[in-house]
Design goal:
Structural class: alpha/beta
Mean pLDDT: 90
Order of helices and strands: EEEEHEEEEHEHEEEHHHHEHHEH
Radius of gyration: 20 Å
Helix content: 25-40%
Largest sheet: 6 strands, mixed
Number of strands: 14
Shape: globular
């Protein structure tokens, strides 16, 4: 487990925790969205061990900071009131009243939010989504998560699970997806997709001089999204071709989303989104060509994230702060 810096607060503080399938990140965050102290650890495999882990992380942070509440950014389906985690594909919770359970264990108010919505909230208040009217925050990492902001409010749909843009079908009978469908957008536009595309390109034998070819032959496990990004930065042709392919699918998918939602601002967040300098210009061109009525309508501005991979914890902390404010107002 790793720790960030310790110091003195200057106002009301909350803890934001981003709970992913492989790691858990917890931060003390102030009212300006600044992280003051951060802990990381691997995600435990069972519900009981995960709850113990969260309790331990918050306890360690509370030893150093006076915090008022905890927010959880959870990669899973939550009920519209965010009181129950119905299903999380990479976590052990099923129909679990997580905020209530954790509040009882921690002794502080605990609030939950979908991880993509947490990132959207963070970008809205402290980052690249500030000033947007109808905004899409697209979190591109292992897969695709999305948060929709309509007139300054998170849009959740009727049952709390909107939007699942990552599972729009872009290639009928395409690559299989963990959701059970084939050809989902995230199977062509994500960190995982980037690696799959490189594997397919190398199998074509059109890139014999690619350093990735030699590396993956010697150690197939060395081919990761971060390694592809580094190779692209060094000018590797296979890596650059994979990014060009991802830019095409990103633009195509954004065209579909724009036809449905018509946003004025799109923010690319997540680990891959944070590296959008590799593909953003090409993606803009593909988006402009793919949208219905191309050339005869206004297009959304597309920006890279300002908060990077910290958006989840910063947003979760803001959710906790907003939850406390709502409780206070309700008590008046």
């Amino acid at each position: 487990m790793t720790s960030g810096r310790v110091g003195n607060s200057g106002g009301a503080l909350t803890v934001g925790i981003d709970i992913g399938g492989t790691s858990v990140r917890a931060s003390v965050v102030d009212a300006q969205g600044r992280q003051l102290d951060t802990l990381r650890t691997a995600t435990p495999p069972t519900a009981e061990s995960l709850e113990y882990c969260l309790h331990r992380l918050v306890g360690e942070l509370r030893d150093r900071w006076a915090v008022d509440a905890v927010g959880l950014a959870i990669a899973g389906f939550l009920t519209p009131d965010r009181q129950v985690v119905r299903f999380a594909p990479h976590l052990a919770w099923r129909e679990a009243r997580v905020p209530e359970i954790m509040s009882e264990r921690i002794g502080l108010p605990v609030f939950a939010e979908h991880d993509a919505n947490s990132a959207a909230i963070a970008e809205l208040h402290f980052g690249a989504a500030a000033g947007g009217h109808n905004t899409l925050v697209l979190s591109i990492g292992t897969g695709i998560g999305a948060g929709m902001i309509m007139d300054g409010q998170i849009y959740r749909g009727s049952f709390g699970v909107a939007p699942e843009f990552g599972h729009l079908t872009v290639v009928p009978d395409g690559r299989p997806c963990g959701c059970g469908k084939r050809g989902c957008w995230e199977r062509y536009c994500s960190g995982t997709a980037l690696v799959d595309t490189v594997v397919e390109l190398l199998a074509s034998h059109d890139y014999p001089r690619s350093v990735l070819a030699a590396e993956s032959e010697a150690d197939p496990g060395s081919l990761t999204g971060r390694r592809v990004a580094a190779a692209a930065a060094d000018g590797d042709r296979a890596a650059l071709a994979a990014y060009a392919d991802m830019a095409k699918w990103l633009g195509y998918g954004l065209g579909m989303v724009a036809d449905i939602f018509d946003p004025d601002l799109i923010v690319l967040a997540g680990g891959v989104g944070a590296a959008s300098g590799q593909f953003l210009d090409d993606a803009r061109e593909h988006y402009a060509a793919a949208v219905t009525g191309a050339g005869y309508r206004q297009l959304a501005r597309i920006r890279g994230t300002q908060l990077g991979e910290a958006a989840g914890v910063i947003g979760a902390a803001q959710v906790a702060r907003q939850g406390l404010a709502a409780q206070f107002e309700g008590a008046q």
